[in-house]
């Protein structure tokens, strides 16, 4: 079973780390052309992992075929972003796609309690390992140098991703694909999860009164309540992700 912060979860994270590190060393001496197309092939593999639900998932729901939450959106975008010549697109892959996939592996609440070798657990593992591995190897192999100066754009992209998930969740409800608003990225604040609870520590004012199960209660204002915590934490985290690629000596002499 995948129980968060247990030995099984730790082994999961170690396996992900070894997979990425092993792939890095296995192909780091290959030609740039080989590395380029190898990484692109991984973006296609990530699509195959996503749509493997069609074959292997039990009781497949239509909405599961959509690219939901920010990691699903990144899975959809990766092939196009990777082939683009935009450095901003590559920064999205590193700072947003890779980082949020890491968060999902570090706290995999959507598969918590599932058997570790069940199909959905294995799919979740490889889907997020690929989202981390592709931009990380792209950077460590020298195909792209992450630029912290684009952090403002990264913040905007995450906000757009949140709006995308709210719209997608509302679409599912309106079309009858689901009967509740899925709390992707915590945007709706309708779950008692760790992300929502942490967000409210930074924005206790971002609530409203509503009747829930016959009781008047305080609920987070969707989307708005998550902006303060993300503003405070994202930029230092993104800067720390940039440190290995900053030439401090050059900056000092310039």
Q: Helix content range of the residues, please?
A: 55-70%
How many structurally independent domains? 2
Structural class call reads mainly alpha
CA gyration radius, whole angstroms = 19 Å
* Total number of strands: 2
Mean pLDDT: 88
Q: Give the overall shape, derived from the CA principal axes.
A: globular
Largest sheet: 2 strands, antiparallel
Number of helices: 10
**Separation of termini?**
54 Å
Proportion of residues in β-strands: under 5%
Q: How do the helices and strands follow one another from N- to C-terminus?
A: HHHHHHHHEEHH
Low-pLDDT segments, ≥5 res: none
State the strand order across the main sheet: 1-2
Describe the structure in brief.
The chain has 254 residues and is mostly helical.
Keywords:
254 residues; single chain; 2 domains; 10 helices; mainly alpha; 2 strands; two-stranded antiparallel ribbon
Q: What does the model show?
A:
By secondary structure, the chain is mostly helical. It has 2 domains: 140 residues, no CATH class; 107 residues, no CATH class. Helix content is 62%, strand content 5%. The chain is built from 10 helices and 2 strands; from the N terminus they run ααααααααββαα. Strand 1 and strand 2 form a beta hairpin. It starts with 6 loop residues before the first helix and ends with a helix.
């Amino acid at each position: 079973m995948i129980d968060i912060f247990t030995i099984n979860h730790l082994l999961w994270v170690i396996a992900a780390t070894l997979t990425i590190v092993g792939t890095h060393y296995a192909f780091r001496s290959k030609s740039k052309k080989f590395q380029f197309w190898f990484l692109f092939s991984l973006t296609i593999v990530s699509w195959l992992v996503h749509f493997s639900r069609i074959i292997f998932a039990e009781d497949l729901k239509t909405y599961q075929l959509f690219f939901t939450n920010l990691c699903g959106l990144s899975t959809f975008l990766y092939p196009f972003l990777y082939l683009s010549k935009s450095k901003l697109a590559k920064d999205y892959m590193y700072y947003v796609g890779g980082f949020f996939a890491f968060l999902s592996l570090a706290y995999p609440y959507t598969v918590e309690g599932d058997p570790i070798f069940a199909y959905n657990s294995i799919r979740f593992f490889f889907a997020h390992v690929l989202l981390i591995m592709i931009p990380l190897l792209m950077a460590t192999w020298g195909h792209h140098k992450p630029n912290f100066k684009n952090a403002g754009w990264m913040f905007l992209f995450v906000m757009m991703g949140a709006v995308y998930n709210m719209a997608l969740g509302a679409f599912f409800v309106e079309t009858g694909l689901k009967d509740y608003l899925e709390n992707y990225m915590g945007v709706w604040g309708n779950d008692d999860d760790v992300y929502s609870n942490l967000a409210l520590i930074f924005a206790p004012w971002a609530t409203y009164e509503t009747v829930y199960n016959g009781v008047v209660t305080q609920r987070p204002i969707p989307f708005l309540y998550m902006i303060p915590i993300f503003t405070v934490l994202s930029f230092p985290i993104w800067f720390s992700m940039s440190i290995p690629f900053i030439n401090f000596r050059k900056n000092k002499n310039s």
